[in-house]
Amino acid sequence: MTDTPHAQPNHDDQLPREIIDLLAAVAQLPEKARDAIDPAVCRVVDSTKRRRRILTLVQDALNQLRMDMKYLAFDLEATRRERDEYRRQLEEKPSQ
């Protein structure tokens, strides 16, 4: 490609192999052809990066949700144990 930073693969982006191969193939094209398709390739690269970021955010949110559910289940079980203990104490308490 020409000097467009969007389409330059770098290791931080973790682009899929297919996109890296596409970038390499486009880089081999004559300059006129490269210039013609460069905007489309840049949009594909940007879209891929954006989708990867969104996927990471969704995975993080799901992991947090799973952890929250475990805490809630633990709290519910502890509350049930406390309730049962209070009921037992009430039943054992002599009536006045």
Task: Kindly describe this structure.
- This protein has 96 residues and is an all-alpha fold.
- The chain has one domain.
- Helix content is 76%, strand content 0%.
- It has 2 helices and no strands.
- Helix 1 packs antiparallel against helix 2.
- The longest helix has 62 residues.
- It is rod-shaped.
Unreliable residue stretches: 1-7
Count structural domains: 1
Q: Could you say which overall geometry the principal axes of the C-alpha atoms support? A: rod-shaped
Termini separation (Å)? Answer: 90 Å
Sketch the major β-sheet.
none
What's the Cα radius of gyration? 29 Å
Helix amount: over 70%
Structural class: mainly alpha
pLDDT average, as an integer? 88
Helix/strand order: HH
Beta-strand proportion: under 5%
The number of strands is: 0
Question: In DSSP terms, counting alpha (H) and pi (I) runs of 4 or more, how many helices?
Answer: 2
Main attributes of the structure:
96 residues; mainly alpha; 2 helices; rod-shaped; disordered N terminus
Topology, pairings included?
Elements: H1 17-27, H2 31-92
Q: How do you describe this structure in short?
A:
By secondary structure, the protein is an all-alpha fold.
